[in-house]
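User: Reviewer 2 asked us to show a designed sequence for the structure in our supplementary figure. I'm pasting the structure tokens here. Could you produce the per-position amino acids so we can include them in the response letter?
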């Protein structure tokens, strides 16, 4: 038996017969993804701080190559953090969209709250990897001159 489907958004297709159960499951899944992404961002930020401390310590000890290695790891971690931040924001928007759909289904006359769009600076960070790469080259040149 085939169910009618109602397209809710480009990434949601919920069978009409099971709408409430499926919507609740989707909402729970998006909330879990959002919380896990936030936890990953915090973990990665701690790792970035650790790599920074290691890089500074090795420069002070005179181990420039090892310091560049730590800076490279830091760059990768910052890129991964950027990914998880975007994923967290997207998950939060999914939670809000689905909550609005559920509220509208339960009471069509109800005024829906406005969407809370997380403030991000991802447009400013579009060239982030190029900036990191440039910083590594400059650091390498400075280390080479100091040697």
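Assistant: Here is a per-position design you can include in the supplement:
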């Amino acid at each position: 038996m085939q169910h009618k489907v109602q397209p809710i958004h480009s990434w949601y297709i919920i069978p009409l017969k099971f709408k409430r159960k499926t919507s609740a499951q989707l909402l729970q899944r998006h909330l879990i993804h959002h919380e896990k992404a936030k936890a990953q961002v915090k973990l990665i930020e701690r790792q970035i701080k650790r790599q920074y401390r290691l890089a500074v310590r090795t420069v002070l000890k005179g181990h420039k190559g090892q310091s560049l290695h730590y800076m490279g790891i830091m760059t990768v971690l910052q890129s991964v953090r950027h990914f998880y931040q975007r994923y967290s924001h997207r998950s939060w928007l999914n939670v809000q969209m689905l909550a609005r759909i559920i509220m509208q289904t339960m009471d069509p006359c109800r005024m829906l709250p406005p969407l809370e769009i997380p403030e991000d600076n991802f447009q400013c960070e579009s060239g982030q990897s190029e900036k990191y790469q440039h910083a590594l080259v400059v650091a390498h040149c400075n280390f080479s001159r100091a040697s």
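For the response letter, you might also mention the following. Residues 6 and 12 are 9 Å apart (CA to CA). The first helix runs from residue 19 to 61.
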